Amino acid sequence: MNAQELLSIADDELILGWRDSEWTGIAPSLEEDVAFSSIAQNEIGHARALYELAAAALGTTADELAFDRDPSDYRSSQLVEQRRMDWAHTIARHYLYETADEIRLAALKESDDAAVAGLAAKMDREEQYHRLHARMWAERLKDEPRFKEALEELWPYALGVLAPEQRAALAERVGLPETQAVERDGHSDELGELWEEMTMVRRSIPGATW
Amino acid sequence: MIFEVFRQEKKGAAFAHAGSVSAPTAEFAEAFAREQYGRRQESVALWVVPRGEIHAVTDFADELNKTYHRVDGYSLKAKLKEARERAGTAVDR
After folding, report:
1. Taking CB atoms and an 8 Å limit, are A35 and B27 in contact across chains?
2. Can you give the pTM of this predicted structure?
3. Which end of chain B lies in a sparser environment, N or C, as judged by fewer CB atoms within 10 Å?
4. Pick the CATH number of A3-204 from 1.10.3210.10, 3.40.50.300, 1.20.1260.10, 1.10.8.280
5. Which residue has the higher pLDDT, A206 or A176?
């Protein structure tokens, strides 16, 4: 597996973790606040582990990969970079992402690269709780018009999380027809804003160690 | 709905009340309890119980002041000493 592919997944996890953490303190209930914040933290933990693998291949460090690249160099999918939406959209994204991620992780677990396969297996053990959480919410909201609209709106972005050959599996699991995907080759302005905020501390004293 | 959460710190230990979570269904309650009482490896198992399913007992009548039913109503130490003396098994302490 090449470092660029690892970076795509790492960037997805970092950016989604960041976006999900925007609900900390304002989620629909205290319990959900704790649960969703915890999921966000897990995603960032996965990002770190993936960046470390990529960094070893690229001769750099996880922090440099996470924070020192230009926003246009991030390989994250456009599904994860969208700024805090309402809860219906957040759950729609969460459900779509976790379902896609399950397909992606299953493939990674079969990787010839033992380090990648091993990490994928570890991540999957945490992700199964994310999937439980996502499915539980999706099941609860499934008849809500706002949730259905959000799913349809985000669907082309969700397809863009996966490689083209994996998309049919996602369509089958989610029960929506395959359509033109929003690919990883571009970013919205929202990623730039997120990057400004996310890298603010690190840029304030370049080269500092923490 | 309120669910009471009990957690077990290590295998074989007694479950102790950890706190409660508010959740719409048992499934949500389990997920919330897992995050609040399990994600730092502080528990090996949880019991998540709807508050209404708990049968609380709070009244304990003792109208006749039967102190002999209570630990503090019965001086075991003196009685034990007497019994040991009778049996010839008294120990010097």
Report:
1. no
2. 0.86
3. C
4. 1.20.1260.10
5. A176
